[in-house]
Amino acid sequence: MIVAFSGGKGGTGKSTVSTNVAVALGDFALVDLDVEAPDDHILLSTELVGVGEVALFQPVFNHDACFACGRCLDACHDNAIISGRNGKPILIPELCGGCRGCKIICPSDEAIKEGKKTVGRIYENVTPYGFPLITGELFEGEEKTYKVLLETRRYAVRRYENLIFDTAAGAGNGIFKALEGVDVVVAVTEPTPFGIRDLEKILEISKLLDRRAVVVINRSGTGDESIVEKMCNRYGIKIIGKIPYSENIMKAYFKNVPVVTTDYPEAAVFRELTEKIMEEACR
What we know:
It is a single chain. The model has no long low-confidence stretch (mean pLDDT 94). By secondary structure, the protein is α/β, with parallel strands linked by helices. It has helices at residues 14-25, 40-43, 71-75, 101-105, 145-159, 173-179, 193-208, 225-235, 247-254, 266-281, and strands at residues 2-6, 29-32, 50-61, 81-83, 89-91, 112-126, 132-138, 163-166, 184-189, 213-220, 238-244. The strands form two sheets. The chain has a nine-stranded mixed β-sheet with strand order 3-6-7-2-8-1-9-10-11, with helices on both faces. Strands 4-5 form a two-stranded antiparallel sheet. Helices cover 35% and strands 26% of the residues. A hairpin with a 5-residue loop joins strand 6 and strand 7. It has two domains: 2-44 and 127-281, Rossmann fold (3-Layer(aba) Sandwich), CATH 3.40.50.300; 57-118, Alpha-Beta Plaits (2-Layer Sandwich), CATH 3.30.70.
């Protein structure tokens, strides 16, 4: 079973909700797929332990075996290859996406050698709450998030059957891969114009991927929730929970303590929400 938390807009509380649900369940592996800014380990007060690196293919050109045919330049959609002296290719490493198109199309077996560039790392550790946390991290200065996200997901799926995906903000290509094949998408939103705009993107992606989706309104009571309700009605999506804007939740957040482990009244909100999510995932 895979439950994915998304929301489009950054800062809606997606990581807060997903970590609390993971603690409430206790037997799901939590996977932090926000590889540009992973923070679940901070919210769960746990250290990261590296288990592997993520590398991109990069061509190493052997000009002695190169025919200067220019096919590698035409095949490179990242424009990472330029023509140098005598038409021989030169790589701009920062632009290379590692697609291998140049090597596949090259008519010479010796002109392009295997090279690689390490762009990220995968971590796995057991949290203080007893469940595993798998984290993908893109190295600072790198831009190719997709490879790190994909390898982190693969690593998690190979090792665990029950997973919670905490996805990145936005609605780009990485979100499509993060939500692909999941049992339910939990879209965490807030009743603000930006929150509602990006919620629609996630609901549309869920529809395109034919994934069941439900909505959780975070910071309930701070805006016009009727707009969220109208949008959910339009997509035929249920709102399964509302998390109040609460000083207690803020206190727990700044202490890096999951609300569900406290004696605050809001802990019951997260426990009830967890039950509803599991009901939807098992449908």
